[in-house]
Design a protein that fits this description.
mainly alpha, three-stranded antiparallel beta sheet, 12 helices, about 5% strand, disulfide bond, Folate_rcpt-like, transmembrane helix
Length: about 325
């Protein structure tokens, strides 16, 4: 019985492995494992990585530092080449594209998706989640785009483009729009869409930034919230005060203001007195220097006159 069941068990395992093979294509770990977790080219829509063939690392400072998408500095495949291209796209979108502020924010996240370390090690165009693609399309529906003549990719309109149209005129839905822009989108009709959504780029800040940067941002927001709550508490306390207490507070404020003005006047008077003393000292030194110069000049003149008299007396004797 045991010898008969072993071949069946092997066949079952092979069949199970064959059935699970398509699932691995959507796993970011499997994708990274296929190329060793190194940066790979994303397609003609994006510039090539200088770290192609190497693992993502910390962005270098200086001339090749990130000009955009700096929340990926701790680990990314990007450098100035990718971020400068993204910055140019944003400038075009803000200018000839006539995009709104919300559209610019969403498009910046979209352009920076290539700098996500998970996206950088995955071959092919960045895989976007349908929800994020929908948010980009909704925000930029009224912005103007045109097709690039070389790559045939939908890009923000530039002053040199002849044909520009709104995003909603180029594409009827978000998936088509993102695909025309050079990205790929999870197909919700696919039976493995639930697995693909775990690997797609959703544009969330927690997924993009490093842990330290996220913690610092949250701490900064907490400090701002605490400061705001403290100010609100003081304002409410003053509003609930009685008239007499408000008058006392006003008098106290006037007294403090008068004290500050008095101290400032004293400081100014001290400074003016010190400047007068310094000026007198400088004048005395200048007068002393002039007297010494006059004394030296008179001494030199008297010495010269004495020499001339001596020569005049000596000349008749010599004759």
């Amino acid at each position: 019985m045991k010898s008969r069941s072993d071949p069946r068990r092997c066949k079952d395992l092979l069949l199970l492995a064959w059935l699970l093979a398509p699932f691995c294509g959507y796993c970011p770990q499997a994708q990274a494992g296929q190329n060793g977790g190194v940066c790979v080219f994303q397609g003609n829509r994006f510039p090539k990585f200088s770290l192609e063939g190497h693992a993502p690392g910390k962005a270098s400072k200086g001339r090749i530092d990130l000009t955009l998408c700096r929340y990926y500095r701790q680990k990314t495949c990007c450098d100035v080449v990718q971020t400068h291209a993204a910055l140019l796209m944003l400038q075009r979108l803000a200018g000839s594209g006539e995009a709104s502020t919300q559209c610019l924010e969403q498009w910046e996240v979209l352009e920076c998706s290539i700098c996500d370390p998970r996206v950088g090690v995955t071959p092919g165009p960045p895989l976007l989640c349908p929800s994020f693609c929908e948010s980009v399309y909704t925000a930029c529906a009224n912005a103007y785009f045109s097709t690039d003549p070389l790559t045939q990719v939908l890009m923000p309109c530039s002053p040199r483009d002849v044909l520009c149209a709104k995003a909603k005129e180029w594409a009827s839905n978000s998936s088509v729009f993102c695909q025309l822009a050079g990205f790929s989108v999870v197909d919700t009709r696919d039976e493995f869409a639930s697995l693909a959504e775990n690997a797609c780029f959703d544009g969330k800040a927690e997924a993009r930034g490093s842990v330290d940067e996220v913690v610092k941002t949250k701490q900064k927001n907490t400090r701002r919230a605490n400061h705001k709550s403290f100010v609100d508490m003081i304002r409410k306390y003053i509003e609930n005060m009685g008239v007499v207490i408000r008058i006392l507070w006003a008098i106290g404020g006037l007294v403090l203001t008068a004290g500050v003005l008095h101290l400032r006047r004293r400081a100014l008077s001290k400074k003016s007195a010190a400047s007068v003393v310094l000026r007198n000292k400088q004048m005395q030194e200048q007068a002393r220097a002039r007297q010494q110069a006059l004394y030296k000049a008179s001494t030199a003149n008297s010495a010269g006159a004495a020499k001339q008299d001596k020569r005049a007396r000596d000349s008749p004797k010599a004759a």
